[in-house]
Amino acid sequence: MTVETHGFQTEAKQLLHLMIHSLYSNREIFLRELISNASDAADKLRFEALADASLYDNDSDLRIRIDLNPDDGIVTIHDNGVGMSKEEVVENLGTIAKSGTSQFLQGLSGDQKKDAQLIGQFGVGFYSAFIVADKVVVETRRAGAAADQAVRWTCEGEAEYTIEDIEKQDRGTTITLYLKDDALEFASELRVRSIVKKYSDHIGIPVALRKRADEQDKDSDEPTYDYDTINNATALWTRPRSEIKDDEYQEFYKHICHDFVTPLAWSHNRVEGKLDYTSLLYVPGHAPVDLYNRDVSRGLKLYIQRTFIMDDASQFLPSYLRFIRGVLDSNDLPLNVSREILQHSPAVDSIRSALVKRILDMLEKMAKESSDDYRTFWREFGAVLKEGPAEDFANKERIAGLFRFVTTKTEGDEATDSLADYVSRMKDGQEKIYFLVAENLTSARNSAYLEAFRKNDIEVLLLTDRLDEWTIAHVAEFEGKELKDITKGELEESLFADDADTEDKADKNDSSSTAAIEKISNLLKDKVESVRETRRLTDSPACLVYAEDALSPHMRKMMEAAGQKMPVDKPVLEINASHPLVRQLGSESDQQRSAELTGLLYDQAVLSAGEQLENPALFVKRLNQLLFEGAA
Predict the structure, then answer these.
(1) pLDDT above 70 covers what percent of the chain?
(2) Could you tell me the pTM of the whole model?
(3) Where are the alpha helices (DSSP H) in 62-136?
(4) Smallest Cα–Cα separation from 234: which of 254, 248, 216?
(5) How many CB atoms lie within 10 A of CB 123?
(6) Residue 91: which residues within 8 A CB-CB, separation 6 or more?
(7) Which contacts qualify for 525-528: CB closer than 8 Å, 24 or more apart?
(8) Helix, strand or coil, per DSSP, at residue 212
(9) 403 in helix, strand or coil?
(10) Contact 35, 196 (CB under 8 A)
């Protein structure tokens, strides 16, 4: 018999090291993870047997059995699920064949509690066996394979593992744990019973614990055993909601998602009528490390007539709700359904639409009734939800209502204000929701574009996420109020009308401002569309204003970074006629001096708009010259 010795993949080795050194704060979770994997193996066998019933090999009674040997400190978990081939053993146990491993390892902080959450995000349940065991042996035979095509995988540490071919009479997987000296409690019948009831009561197949038979064969020297089922063995989503406790919902979520963090919310619903299906949907308590990896499969666990079909039925959720986890059990789809059939099924479209509405209901309820949980949700998944208006036009206003923003009236840096909050605070006569796009909150709060808004006590949304401008463009309006970028187009005269003092100043400065506009227009004709007086500024000398349909500098930079060539959009230069620099420019008779002041004025406006200067050194030279003259 050939025994092959393999070294672990580097990243798997790092992860295994963490597991062996008790990364999890709750060691008993190892049993939940191994039972969960065994349950998944049973589900997968049911699915494959739809096409080939011979895989059952006259044994269709799927089950999980646990044997305890407290004297020797051994725990053995058997399942008669789908099993693994040699190639699958190497792929699943010798490496971590999942994308995002590097991101996971980079995210480790050394804080056991936080790192345990990362383990949950990544879903590496099998490795939890090494929390309690210093040796793990896996014996497995793939359904449909011959008895002599079984495999034994053995690992006693962090450096390497062995694989050998063995004979195994029954299909499925047996995992044997040789417990560490400080983990012998997990070979206790009472301890194991309590763990299974706590974590795995909802699993849809029986989990049975071996016990001595009540009646022993008197002629036998060996004890005989029975198996006692210790879980409910009923799929949780099939039970009435009134019979299910919150902690059962929470443990079921952890089972199907291999997560260690309690979900923020869930919705359990049975629909009967034109369509017949049951859904159990969860909002996770944290984002997985690979949330933005498009190659990772996501979706609901799909069952049809209680039969497992697939782990990641993404057709039932739009991409912007890809963080939702849960189970969908339908009676209206064929058992031999494929991904291609799902994509072209009217029933799927109908269920998808209903699930989206239910999820939005769940999020709206959370926002209304549990603000702390909703803040957590927004921190974790807000950026994904922002994809919604572009993807789901029919629900764009409901999705926009779930957004949270920092505004000029927000205390602190956390996005806590909704569009409905903004509308409720709008001034009389205000018809638009104003927003400003900036690189970060510091830049936004100190932007020259806010000067007139502050003076007139008009609230502005401060958008600093790279998706914000793209998202707002697809929202366009909320509750009949247009969303307007304060760096573009004209402002409403009714809200920004000059007061009497300003009008007097304007009369006095009329000749100098007219002269300044004329000079600037001539000097900057290649850079700006036109020059005009501003309503936006009270303290700054000038700003750039873009056309309503033009891209902002922020969006332009994003598009160019993505390799797209963007057309040239000349902005309008707005000047503050009462500013000393503009007045000085208007009265300046020296042409060279006028050109210097105009260049300085324009460069300041460029910087205020968040753009890069073509010649920073020239700007510094002009600024120093002006400062020197002022000091002189």
Answers:
(1) 87
(2) 0.77
(3) 86-89, 101-106, 112-122
(4) 248
(5) 17
(6) 97
(7) 527/570, 527/602, 528/570, 528/571, 528/572, 528/573, 528/602
(8) strand
(9) coil
(10) yes
